[in-house]
Amino acid sequence: MSPLWSLFQAASQVGGEILGEGAVVPTSLSLDTRTLEPGACFVALRADRDGHAFCALAAAKGAVALLVDDPQDVDLPQFVVPDTLVALQRWGQTRLAAVRPKAVFGVTGSVGKTSTKELLAAATGGWKTPGNRNNTLGLPEALATLPEGLGAAVLEMGMSTPGEIRRLTEIAPLDFGIITVIGTAHLENFASPQGIAAAKGELVAGLCRGGAWAFLAADGWCRWVAEQPWARHTEPLPVGEGEAFGWEAVESLGAAGERFRLRTSAGTLPVELRLRGLHQVRNATLAGAIAVRAGFDLAAVAAGLGAVEPEAGRGRLHLLAGGGRLLDETYNASPDSILACAAALLDLPGGEAVAVLGSMRELGPEAARIHQETGRALRNLGLSRLWAFGDFARDYAEGFGSGAVACPDFEALRDDAAGLSAIPTGARILVKGSRFWRAERAVDWLLAH
User: CATH no. for residue 71?
Assistant: First the structure.
């Protein structure tokens, strides 16, 4: 592991005062005692709950230092600053600047951010932000212990309100970027789809001069971003049919994934992707395109893309007794991602195609209509049955029509005679829903029963 900063070194970059042993070197930063690992510096944020109240617990769980705005009666070295949030962000920002990798990539989009981050990190052999540390707390937390000597770093950048991605690009200025797709996620926080496009476009505005960014050529809102005055300092890289970068000869390998040819300015190579669905082919092509544009070797890029395994909740496939298959896409849900995953389900062998869906969130006043339209679109795609739960389950069911079951919550879905136990043996099952509804409980139940 490359040298990390001691408290003294961090203070020289961030400002503040050290109480106690300043030579201690934290192996990570932690904002949450529930996930704190021994060796971490615990960051006491003042939010809904005051992190300073958990400093003693952090010490008991193995923290080696505290970042606080008020000295605590805890026997640990303490880094005391006026504002712990400002200090956290400054620590991540200055660490990235001090050990900056050869290429820093940012990935955002309404759908597919995390999968594309994983694909791009594999394509470049780069470091990546762990888990979903994609906001103004998690990103600097991860960057604070960024290793030295990296060829690439791939940073996922999420947002739920305007200005959030702009702040992330201030913390982490980008050389290259990807916008996977601009859709309707988080619509309730914006006046219009154009507002969402402008907020996603903050990633492009935050690129270093001459920085390239990849997007799907067919995405009208990404094309809108490319035409804005604040994007003129960047190089837009459209990916798709008729472009220098794209995908061709897509062939489903069923449970094994997808085979396609990655077309780039450096040549065309076959890729065997372990992720399923045309949407993952598109994500892989975006990742491959920007990696090649950034100067990474095409053969290494193609090999890296083919090495990525699906994560739990993000396309992991389970074989069930009786020849059935369960596609676990429970990490989150939007209309676009539900339909993309349903299309991937239909490519799998097995019995009738059905879905178990938790409701979606953050769709604003149009939420009921969007759930109805999603249900109708699933029926039109060719799914035969739908089990829905949550506050908009009835709307899903109304759009889907006959063959739909609506339950108010997971417990009803689990216990009702017409619920999960009524899913036929041998079925191909898509399970998906917003994080709030914890649809992974349905996966656990179906695997156990």
Answer: 3.40.1390.10
